[in-house]
Amino acid sequence: MNREYVLAINPGSTSTKVAIYKGKEMIKVKKIEHSARELEKYKKIPDQYDYRLNLIYEWLQSEGISTSSLIAVVGRGGLLRSIPGGTYVVTEKMIEDLKIGIQGEHASNLGGILAKGIADGEKIKSFIVDPVAVDEFEDIARISGLKEIERRSLVHALNIKAVSHRRAEELGKDLSELNLVVAHLGGGISVSPVKLGKIVDANNASEMGPFSPERTGSLPVGDLVRLCYSGKYTFDEMKIKIKGKGGLVSYLGTTDGREIEERIKNGDEYAQLIYSAMAYQIGKEIGAMATALEGKVDNIILTGGLAYSEYLVDIIKNMVGFIAEVVVYPGEDEMKALNEGVLRVLKGEENEKIYENEVLY
Ligand SMILES: Nc1ncnc2c1ncn2[C@@H]1O[C@H](COP(=O)(O)OP(=O)(O)O)[C@@H](O)[C@H]1O
Ligand SMILES: CCCC(=O)OP(=O)(O)O
């Protein structure tokens, strides 16, 4: 059988998105949903491997796609050791680090493991593209203010790079000629100055920056320490408060922007205050990242699910419009970005990278 398709796999906290591409064309796509009850059965993220793998095989079968028609498999890359952006071959060393969760647990740690599992059966190559551990920080951005703690680059690199390339194409320029501030506004929020194509700083979507639908972002540090030592919460409970039960859900009991906007329309002033505060914090973070580019910003890009919200976009535009033109790309282009990362390598336009050779630290 002719090998002509790329299978892309994007494991998230509540779903596994899968897609089949022929060249640049998406032939099939599916968001396989996982209930909280199903995922609760697994103690650690890698324990979900067989469960998610079987669902992918079932989907391929239901679509009449044989694995013998695949030319390569690509997964969203996870919390590996810090590495530069690019398309990476999945190696044994990478699998080892993904299984350990070298920089923490994240559903995307399964991306490379699932890709290699399927590819090995066919003796074809597996890849990851621009994982969340992409680190292109300038040294000055790593300094936190306490010697034992370094600021880390944990960022929605895949979508940030994808929308940056999209803007460069629209402007008829090379990304290496542009300075952008990109805000990925999803369940977690990343705000990054993209300087001549590189993500030179970012807030750390898991623990810092603006609060998000399910994360606290940065908190007043003294009060946070006092809460940690109050005896009211365990370490694990505090971790979940910060990532999972923080942000909008902690104030309003929901992560759903549409539901909150309905409440605001119906006169809920508290919902309006909290929702506007999230936009306010996003605006302030964009302003801060614009200063990292010394104000030389060609465009500000808003992307991710929350960028569908005119309510939020209007507040942010009012705050940051004086810096540069604000461009809105709602949703994300992650599946397309995974496929195109592989195509660039298969066509010889870009060299594949080897994880072991690129690790920064
Ligand atoms: N039209 C919309 N208006 C307001 N919020 C929206 C809209 N569409 C999606 N969202 C919100 O976007 C967030 C999810 O964004 P997404 O980029 O899909 O995140 P993730 O991939 O991290 O789950 C949710 O809070 C969701 O409620
Ligand atoms: C760890 C940074 C990337 C991130 O937060 O991804 P999700 O929003 O998919 O959890």
Written account of the structure:
The chain is of the alpha/beta class. The protein folds into 2 domains: 5-136 and 335-358, Nucleotidyltransferase, domain 5 (2-Layer Sandwich); 172-331, ATPase, nucleotide binding domain (Nucleotidyltransferase, domain 5). The protein is 38% helix and 21% strand. The protein has 13 helices and 14 strands. The chain has helices spanning 36-39, 49-62, 92-100, 109-122, 157-171, 221-228, 235-242, 248-252, 257-265, 269-292, 310-320, 334-346, 355-358; strands at residues 5-11, 15-22, 25-33, 70-76, 87-89, 125-129, 143-146, 149-150, 179-185, 189-195, 198-199, 299-304, 325-330, 353-354. Strands 3-2-1-4-6-5-14 form a 7-stranded mixed beta sheet. The longest helix has 24 residues, at 269-292. The protein is globular. The model has no long low-confidence stretch (mean pLDDT 96). The chain binds adenosine-5'-diphosphate and the ligand CCCC(=O)OP(=O)(O)O. Adenosine-5'-diphosphate (ADP) binds next to α9.
Summarize this entry quickly.
It is found in: Cytoplasm. With 361 residues, the chain is α/β, with parallel strands linked by helices. It contains 13 helices and 14 strands.
Order of helices and strands: EEEHHEEHHEEEHEEEHHHHHEHEHEH
In the CATH hierarchy, the architecture of the largest domain is: 2-Layer Sandwich
Biggest pleated-sheet summary: 7 strands, mixed
Rg computed from alpha carbons, rounded to a whole number of angstroms = 20 Å
> Could you give the count of β-strands?
14
